[in-house]
């Protein structure tokens, strides 16, 4: 059971109206909502909260006629590369791959054999759905299908994933992961009301995920956490407190558009535990009296995906590369009691993926994706962090 009194699912796959999906009417195949999860999270000017929900719309039967199929967005009448369609016009198509060329063990994706390196395709395509909540985050107020964000450029042809929203001054910034054969990149949107978004382009290149912009400037500059990925990491020396592998790095920018990696590292996995053998950013860091509070995920190796838990750290307010405190006890763990009412939809277990945090007075309101399936809201007292 959760240690927090207020901890519940607030949005689930059954609450998405696929008749209003950007994909509606495009495919000669049935789709369903694989997951409605990993929401970007912020407070709107009217005081309500906004979740920018990742809707993973999947093929009901991806395998048929000896092939496994992927959904792809195509700009206009083009099939090749290019700049995409600024207006967002385009269509969705199905790409068939022979089954003998694919590994379909994971229901979310399939790996293609050959080539000398990993090549992957998806059985779903993700788009972003704005869901407005009450000020405490515990009731749905509206679902803004008219403001959904769907692929509009070739760099997004396999979908838009995992929004993270930060408010800096009077402007909102939203990072997303855009997926295509060209690159697995971080893209940026900006807004003056958190509902109408302007696409700003690619800001981090291939396989640099979980970009979180700090909610405030440091010495006049924007800061962000990033998480580059790769198949090769150099070893720390024997006996080091650090474990080689994916870690949370830092970057700075004069304008939030042009980013430079910071020289010093950010948060690194420790060698003393496998619970955080792989880590990455969670919620955008927020400033407190004791420094920047950052919620991040640690992944313990287990079966195909691993066990995802949420942890927290405090970073120095003037130099976020300095970690003042990290708690080795998970803040949030996967909660099967929350997903039990929708257990028939489960395809993945042992995952909580925190993606947003908002001030709620004497507590923080934290948004997470639960089991890559639904959106979870947790109220966490500030006293839990010593604040």
From TrEMBL:
User: Is the keyword Glycosyltransferase assigned to this protein?
Assistant: yes
Q: Where are the transmembrane segments?
A: none
Task: Report the domain of life of the source organism.
Answer: Bacteria
Q: Which InterPro entries match?
A: Glyco_hydro_beta-prop_sf, Mannoside_phosphorylase
Protein family per UniProt: Belongs to the glycosyl hydrolase 130 family.
Matching PANTHER family: GLYCOSIDASE
What protein name is recorded for this chain?
Answer: Predicted glycosyl hydrolase, GH43/DUF377 family
This chain's source organism reads: Edaphosphingomonas laterariae
């Amino acid at each position: 059971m959760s240690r927090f009194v207020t901890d519940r699912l607030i949005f689930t796959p059954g609450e998405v109206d696929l008749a209003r999906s950007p994909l509606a009417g495009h495919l000669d195949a049935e789709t369903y909502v694989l997951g409605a999860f990993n929401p970007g999270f912020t407070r709107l000017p009217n005081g309500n909260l906004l979740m920018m929900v990742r809707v993973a719309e999947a093929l009901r039967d991806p395998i048929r006629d000896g092939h496994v199929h992927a959904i792809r967005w195509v700009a206009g009448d083009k099939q090749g590369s290019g700049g995409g369609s600024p207006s967002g016009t385009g269509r969705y198509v199905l790409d068939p791959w022979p089954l003998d060329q694919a590994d379909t063990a994971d229901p979310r994706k399939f790996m293609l054999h050959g080539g000398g390196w990993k090549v992957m395709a998806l059985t779903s395509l993700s788009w972003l759905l704005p869901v407005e909540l009450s000020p405490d985050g515990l009731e749905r107020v509206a679902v803004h299908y008219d403001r959904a964000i769907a692929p509009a450029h070739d760099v997004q042809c396999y979908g838009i994933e995992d929004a993270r929203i930060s408010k800096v001054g009077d402007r909102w910034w939203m990072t997303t992961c855009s997926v295509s054969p060209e690159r697995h990149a971080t893209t940026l949107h900006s807004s003056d009301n958190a509902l109408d978004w302007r696409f700003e382009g690619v800001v981090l290149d291939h396989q640099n995920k979980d970009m979180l912009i700090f909610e405030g400037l440091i010495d006049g500059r924007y800061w962000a956490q990033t998480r580059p990925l790769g198949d090769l990491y150099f070893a720390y020396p024997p006996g080091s407190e650090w474990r080689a592998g994916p870690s949370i790095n830092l970057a700075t920018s004069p304008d939030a558009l042009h980013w430079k990696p910071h020289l010093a590292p950010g948060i690194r996995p420790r060698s003393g535990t496998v619970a955080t053998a792989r880590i990455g950013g969670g919620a955008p860091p927020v400033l407190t009296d004791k420094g920047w509070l950052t919620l991040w995920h640690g992944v313990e190796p287990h079966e195909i995906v691993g066990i995802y838990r949420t942890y927290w750290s405090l970073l120095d307010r003037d130099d976020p590369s300095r970690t003042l405190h990290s708690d080795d006890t998970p803040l949030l763990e996967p909660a099967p009691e929350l997903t039990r009412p929708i257990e028939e939809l489960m395809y993945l277990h042992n995952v909580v993926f925190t993606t947003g945090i908002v001030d709620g007075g004497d507590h923080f309101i934290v948004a997470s994706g639960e089991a890559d399936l639904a959106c979870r809201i947790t109220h966490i007292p500030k006293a839990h962090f010593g604040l």
